[in-house]
Write a structure and sequence with these properties.
218 residues; lipid metabolism; alpha/beta; 4 strands; DAGAT; endoplasmic reticulum; 9 helices; 9% strand
């Protein structure tokens, strides 16, 4: 397999788009392991107190991912996500108005390898979710194991990610006053195994939990 390098006259905007996607891919594939290693390495250095204090904070903050997380709007509004949006590109199309006084379950498909479309649309403001659906905050469900990684858990919570379990989704759907949109990959993580160009395979066998959840919470 030959490696083809980008031409030297490639516009700067395109290079920034590629860089934004690379940092995002690293966040999903490399940041969590790096944070785990950092947590334990610090324990054996003169900075051991950082890990100890974080461990205490982690104990106190253990239930936060299941209670809506700690979204930081500044992070979701960074310019870097605009470059990521333009790389693919990703577009959010509105087909109906949603009453912000209600809570919602939003399903997305396909899952893909790294959930690029859902992340760009619902974890960032690059495609205009807050302008298209004023009064609604979106929360993307992610595998719970990611919330067991020190430091990394705080980063993904700031982007509006919460564990993909019934308790986490129900907490937001029960909130009085509405304004919450829980975003679920209807086919689940196994759907990523069928991600290939031109294929849109949806897995619904034994994946009806989101329907039950919607019925339970109206």
């Amino acid at each position: 397999m030959n490696i083809q390098f980008a031409p030297t006259d490639l516009p700067l905007s395109r290079r920034l788009q590629t860089a934004s996607v690379l940092q995002w891919v690293f966040s999903f594939l490399g940041l969590a392991p790096s944070c785990i290693v950092l947590f334990f390495v610090l324990m054996f250095t003169r900075f051991w107190l950082i890990s100890v204090l974080y461990a205490c904070w982690w104990f106190v903050d253990w239930e936060t991912p299941s209670k809506g997380g700690n979204r930081v709007h500044f992070l979701s509004n960074l310019r870097v996500w605009d470059y990521m949006r333009d790389y693919f590109p990703v577009k959010l199309v509105k087909t109906a108005d949603l009453d912000p006084r209600q809570n919602y379950i939003l399903g997305f498909h396909p899952h893909g390898i790294l959930v690029a479309g859902a992340f760009t649309n619902f974890c960032t403001y690059a495609t205009g979710f807050r302008k298209l659906f004023p009064g609604l905050d979106s929360f993307l469900l992610m595998l719970p194991l990611w919330f067991r990684a020190p430091f990394f858990r705080d980063y993904i919570m700031m982007a509006g990610l919460i564990p993909s379990d019934k308790e986490s989704a129900s907490y937001l759907l029960r909130r009085q006053g509405g304004g919450n949109a829980v975003v679920i990959a209807v086919g689940g993580a196994p759907e990523a195994l069928d991600a290939r160009p031109g294929a849109f395979t949806i897995l619904l066998a034994n994946k009806k939990g989101f329907v039950k959840l919607a019925m339970e919470h109206g």
